[in-house]
Amino acid sequence: MYERNVSQIEEIVEKQNQWRSSTLNLIASENVLSNRARRVMGSDFAHRYAEGHPGERYYQGTELIDEVESRLKKHMKSLFHCRQVDVRPISGTIANDAVFSRFIRPGDVVMVNSTPGGGHISHHRAGSVGKYTTNIVNFPLTPDGYHIDVERTIELIRAVSPKVLIFGKSLFLFPEPVADLVAVCRERDIAVLYDGAHVLGLIAGGCFQNPLQEGALLITGSVHKTFFGSQRGIILSNAGENEWRKIDKGAFPGSSSNHHLDTLVPLSITVYEMMEFGQEYARQVIANARHLGKKLHELGIKVQAHEFGYTESHQLAVDVMEFGGGDEVARHLKDNNIILNMNLLPHEPLENVANPSGIRLGVQEMTRFGMKETEMDIIAELFKKCLVDGKYVGDEVKELRLQYQQVQYSFDQSAVEV
Hints:
The protein has helices at residues 3-20, 35-39, 63-80, 92-103, 150-160, 178-187, 200-204, 211-214, 241-251, 261-298, 326-334, 364-368, 373-388, 394-402, and strands at 24-25, 52-53, 56-57, 84-86, 109-112, 135-138, 164-167, 191-195, 218-222, 233-237, 302-303, 315-319, 338-339, 341-343, 358-362.
């Protein structure tokens, strides 16, 4: 009776595969799995439960699951040079909630990046932090809006006595001043947390700041942005055993029971790819982002933070108010097969959230398909033709994208196209 409905779902999936393989995906929070990582999805692991830690499960029949998870944890520790890792959170936001639930109590003051300043929604009153306290204070920003003002932050810390500082952003162009603020935080027993979701692959590749080395207590993150794994979360730390036990219980049973083993397995392959290719990949991602920013700026498009080299990550922020605002521009670019998202810019009022001044670009996925500086020049020209000259460039986008179908920085360059 419902066979046709099943076929329709399959057709939709095929349409998605075909369409997205002909677009330029510049969404800063996405990436692609390698073919070898994708091939291990849909195995028997997809049907199983594994509550607890390897060797200490609440279910029988998990011996092979335990082996995969143990290998993953071992190599994540090696990759990030840390003593503690939890790979069970099923998303970056779940990882955040697992941690926030352990460190934030009702009434505590928590300092975060504001929404216009790039902060993630899970750090705010409507998100995870807001479940535990409403005393949320924004970091003061420098006039450019893309850096925390260290001196004013120290003054604010002394004035409001926060219990927790949460670094990291969703619009994340430059490193955070962890090393500059950790001393005053230690003096006052303030927990320093770092949401590295967007820059996790750049940290792994040694091309961004290392928050743990700079003094952060822990890093949370998702593993599918610049870290090109399956859609899951992670917690990394050098905490002592007693403090880590508290964090561990936040992950299980605090925020999850089973932890979606079907996505655990491809992540176990991705960690090897990151160990082999991560540095080369991270360097190219940052080079591509900076080159694209420079070229767009030369073409008259208002790339932000040009006085600081545009970016030190995979992202760019662009003011597109002259073209109708972020929502209109993102929709228009999508109709030209360029996919990205609208974004508030620093110092912009929250009332603008439905059509902010900016858009956010990320080059990490196109870099994984093999694009380099030459292709960034082409992409910048496509932006100019579309936004400034008012031309349709959808067919040119398809023609360009057709040349980049193979996932690079992986063990399957000779595999079939995705």
